[in-house]
Design a protein that fits this description.
The chain has 718 residues and is mainly alpha-helical. It has helices spanning 29-41, 47-64, 74-93, 123-147, 151-176, 194-218, 223-244, 247-253, 266-292, 296-316, 322-349, 378-385, 394-431, 439-443, 449-460, 464-505, 511-516, 521-559, 565-570, 584-613, 617-630, 642-686, 689-707, and strands spanning 106-109, 117-120. It contains 23 helices and 2 strands. It is rod-shaped and about 210 Å long.
Length: 718
Amino acid sequence: ARAPPPRHKGLPMSASIILPLKGTKPAELSNALLSYYADVTKSRPPEAAAAAARTLDQVRERLSSIKALSDTTADAAATELLAYERQLAALARRLDNAGAALNVRFIWRDAFRPKQKVEKGDLDWERVCTLFNAAAALGYAASRAFRRGAQADAFKQLQRAAGCFAAAHDMVRPAIWGLDPRWEPASLSPDLGLEMLSALRDLMLAQAQHAFHQKAVDEGTSPSVRAKLAEQAALLFGAALRTLDSQELRDYVTEEGSLFKPADDSWLRRLRAAEARARAIAQEEAAAAAAADSSYGAQVARLRLASELMRRAAAAAPDGSPERRSLEDESSSLSQRTRQAEQDNATIYQDPVPSAGALPRLEPKLFVKPIRPEEGLSSAQAAYADAFPALLPAATAAAVTQFHGEVHAKLHDLSTRTTSDAEKAQKALAELELPQALEACEADKRLPARLVRAIAKAQATGGVGVLEELLSACTALEKEAVGAATMANEVLKAEEEKDAALLSDEPRLTRPLLHALKTTQPLVITRSQLDTNRERLETALEVTAKLRSRHESSLREMGGLDAPLEELEARLPHLDGTPLEAEPCVEALRALLDQLEQLKAEAAAKVEAGRIRAPSRAEALAELGAALLCEGGSPPADGSGAAAAAMAPFDQVVSEYDALQRRREALLAAVAEQHALFVVARHAEENYAERQEYLGSLSHGADEMCAGPRGDADPPGW
């Protein structure tokens, strides 16, 4: 019968590979922070900043009071340590040199040698030590999850612990490297050396990989896959062990002995046991996979190797410890299964058993990675960072100031351009006499103002009817005068005939003597007056005839003035039968002018929208400053990033205005083209012969109607 697949109850000593916590001494961070805030901003810190600073002190005091972890405190401690570190990270990004200007000294003890203390004056040191304790708390919480069978929880917590060590390593390395390091390498406590941090990271990843393997066992994954997972766990345990079991660190992680107590290397022995057991489990899983493939010789060879490795694991565990007893039991069980497989193969399968050296190497499969502290804590980080918006590193503040100046310079330049471009457009229209020139369209439908006044004056005389009455009265007077003159002529003629007879009868009487007679004098005077009046009458008859002729020749023109002004204007002749405003160029010009006016309003609105959107310096410090901090404090050299994104809306405003200006130039070109057509049309309309004839007729009629009542000035007095 085939050997049953192995069932593992978890890593029995995983709960014991626990890191000690680093101890610390009190530090007055809040007072230093608020004092620095007041010095930098020249103002009293707002309540939110004061509350955040006090919270830092309270959290630090609460965390520093934890001397040892327990099942009831590990989870809460890990969460609060990570949140505290994120708060420190947010604050450190807002300060130059990681807050060295705060002048706060952070004193931390070595985790493995508490008597050793290291003091440094920047927030990065506080963060590194906090990350160490967070990783220790996560590791403890993972061991508790192991004990209760929550492999998935342990898997995640151990990866987060590895992420803490990786983050601490990434902070320590640049601080101690270089020709002028910020921290002297020799000043660090050994627990925060680069090799130590790398080894602890690998240790946490190894345990996380083992947790994933155990999860695969619980879910019934194939032995071949489980073998790869276990092999990877063994490699990670081996990497951590090689570093920690080196000459430099072996003595350090071994607890010092005394006169009454020998040195304690149980922590390192547990790690050796964990590495050997992980290798044994990998071979045991590979043996199960070989049996599933009916490779019974390979099964026996791998079980022999697994049994030997498990024996080494038991031997490596601390003497008398629960882990050693558990491993001895597991080794015994594995040895029994090995003997059973050997017996089955010898009696049933008779498959050749290869040597251990001839077995193919197991292929590892990595399923773990460090989970960085910032993952999952962004809300706490952001909430804390908002409490100090005015604090920025000098380079970041300079970048924000530059951005703020560029925005306002850009908007000022745009405002100036807007005014200048609008004035140029207005000047271009003024040179074309627009929009005033379009008033000709309205004038085209109206009579000239001079003519309107003349018509009104003519109509005020009473019109043609009054002239007819005057002419009739004049004609009646002429008839009466002619009748009187005729009668007087007859009387004088009779008198002359009598005078002639008298002169004929009286030879002695001559005409001079006759005229000299006293009785003849009135008659002579009357005849003289009558001759004079006859000449005047003849002149009057000539004047009246001329007036009558003028009246009759102007009667049609004057008769047209009796209509209302609106009717007279409606009769105005138009070229092609349509008024000037019906010309396509007029409609096009009006539409273009409307578009130009609308474009002017749009341009002003664009500038105003940009001005409204432009942040104040305080707003820029808060918004752009926070974004730049997430990018490292300064805008990227390639012009991308938060500063470019913040500038993009204003660049867009400029771009949109440029597009509007191009539209304006195109519209002005179209206006010039349509205006040329309009000038031609207006000139043709104004010089239309029929129109000129109509206006001349109205003008002549008005003049004649006004002149009629006055008579004639030639000869004088008539």
